[in-house]
Amino acid sequence: MANIISANDPECIPYAVQLLRAGELVCFPTDTVYGIGAVATNDEAVRRLYAVKGRSPDKPVPLLIANSLEAREIADFPPVANQLITRFWPGALTIVFNKLPAFHSAALAKQQTVALRVPAHDVVTDLIRAVGQPITGTSANRAGARAPISAAEVGFGLGEMAALVIDGGRTPGGIESTVVDVSAGAPRIVREGAVGRREIEECLGRPLGDAK
Predict the structure, then answer these.
(1) CATH number of 4-210
(2) Which pTM value belongs to this model?
(3) In a 10 Å sphere around its CB, with 0-12 CB exposed, 13-18 middle and 19+ buried, how is residue 155 labelled?
(4) Which of 200, 168, 195, 190 is nearest to 33 (CA)?
(5) Comparing C-alpha atoms, which of 71, 126, 123, 111 is closest to residue 94?
(6) What 3-state DSSP class applies to 136?
(7) Which of helix, strand or coil describes residue 123?
(8) Span 166-178, pLDDT tens digits
């Protein structure tokens, strides 16, 4: 069984940061489901995450950041991105950008784009700030299994494959984040989810295309 520590424990975040910086995997609550995180720039840790999830290495993993300023250190921003960020971050909207040439992560699966999100959950954003780097933002379950909404589910599903599970109570679960791709200029919807298409189109004042 994984080591589970309450998010209310004052030693929780410092301990989680120590583990992440050492290349370990840490699970945490978000505004949707429980996620499993590795420091995005630690390729060995990211490869371990893929192995734990049983995820194909050619499938990129989104990254979680603490605020939009961090995104500007990673991604190239078209003007339309500012509208989306102002309206939907923090929240359940993942945005796909062209990455900046200097940024590298095995989580991108050798692609030139990067999917970023600022979650609306203090535990994970506090963790990201303390680490000082983006972390992976994929659900804490084996590929094909149900995404967990409690620390107990994470511990049962992953056992000791993660070094720590931060128990922040039950998460809302249900619908995943919506994914919008702005890497080609005109925004396209990749996955419909918690943020509705109409809401995004009203924000942008234009219809969304669909990713092919």
Answers:
(1) 3.90.870.10
(2) 0.95
(3) buried
(4) 168
(5) 71
(6) strand
(7) helix
(8) 999 999 877 889 9
